[in-house]
Design brief:
Layout (H helix, E strand, L loop, with lengths): L4 H7 L5 E4 L5 H13 L3 E5 L13 H14 L1 E2 L5 E7 L2 E8 L8 E3 L5 E7 L2 E5 L11 H4 L2 H10 L7 H8 L3 H13 L3 E4 L6 E4 L4
Parallel strand pairs: 1-2
Antiparallel strand pairs: 2-5, 3-6, 4-5, 6-7, 7-8, 9-10
Helix pairs in contact: 2-3, 6-7
Length: about 210
């Protein structure tokens, strides 16, 4: 599908969108690619600054060389991506589409050979020790329950929540809140981030 770059820039970075002025190295960009693959997929735009300014790319070949090195050698399992180059305001911009992986969990391999899980939380790629997988899409009935509606309201102003905060929010014990958050994670609503402790939970897909 054709991309409207102006609309994407206006939308700003988020769960499924990341801007990079350039790709610094294969191991570093692997973190972003893996986070998209482990969450809900996403679009990496190279040639756009964090503030939305369009700087453009000097060489499609050099940028894709680093990205393909990342997908082939710095992700496990290797990732399949697609890309296109578009011209915007007289400058070339690279758009890299990363689908949600069917082989989760996917790990990024750093310069020292360490394998690390990343997930996407709002506009950040965050390391975690464990990925709780969900087979199904989120049940719309779940979204209408009072506790989930309160939780979604909380996420409008906050990136993550802990069991202690959830317990305070809905007036239950910490243990009950932890069980609920795990259940929502297993149902595909949340992602668990357990680095550093205590575990935090974020929305798998933001509004």
């Amino acid at each position: 599908m054709p991309y409207n770059l102006a609309e994407l820039i206006n939308q700003g970075e988020g769960t499924r969108l990341e801007f990079k002025s350039t790709v610094s190295s294969a191991p570093r960009i692997a973190k972003t690619l893996v986070a998209f693959a482990n969450t809900s997929g996403g679009l990496l735009i190279v040639g756009v600054d964090d503030d939305g300014g369009v700087s453009g790319i000097e060489s499609e070949y050099h940028e894709m060389q680093k990205i393909e090195k990342a997908t082939d050698f710095f992700t496990e399992p290797p990732l399949s991506i697609s890309y296109e180059v578009i011209t915007f305001e007289g400058k070339e911009v690279l758009l890299v589409n990363v689908p949600e992986s069917e082989e989760k969990p996917v790990k990024a391999i750093d310069e020292r050979g360490h394998k690390i899980l990343y997930v996407r939380s709002k506009d950040k790629s965050i390391p975690t020790n464990k990925l709780i997988l969900s087979e199904n899409a989120v049940d719309t009935k779940l979204l209408q329950t009072p506790n989930v509606r309160m939780l979604l309201q909380y996420f409008r102003k906050n990136d993550t929540i802990t069991a202690a905060k959830m317990a305070q929010l809905i007036n239950v014990s910490d243990q009950r809140a932890e069980k609920m958050l795990r259940e929502y994670t297993e149902k595909g609503l949340l992602l668990m981030i357990d680095r550093p402790r205590p575990p935090r939970y974020s929305l798998k897909v933001s509004d």
